[in-house]
Amino acid sequence: MEVLHPRCAGLDVHKDNVVAAVRLAELGGVRTEVRRFDTTTPGLLALGDWLAECGCTMP
Fold this sequence. Notes:
The chain is an alpha+beta fold. The protein is built from 1 helix and 3 strands, in the order βββα. It has one domain. The two termini are 20 Å apart. This is Transposase. It comes from Belnapia arida.
């Protein structure tokens, strides 16, 4: 049996940035969004805020 999480994220970590993709299962289907964040403290805080806004519980 395959486990599907309704809200999850994948992170691709590089030296200067992090590319984050979220998968959001909604009533009309599945929505995916990708954003890039700097690896500075403000950038990582913005990443955390965005993941919390999306309701991601499975990084």
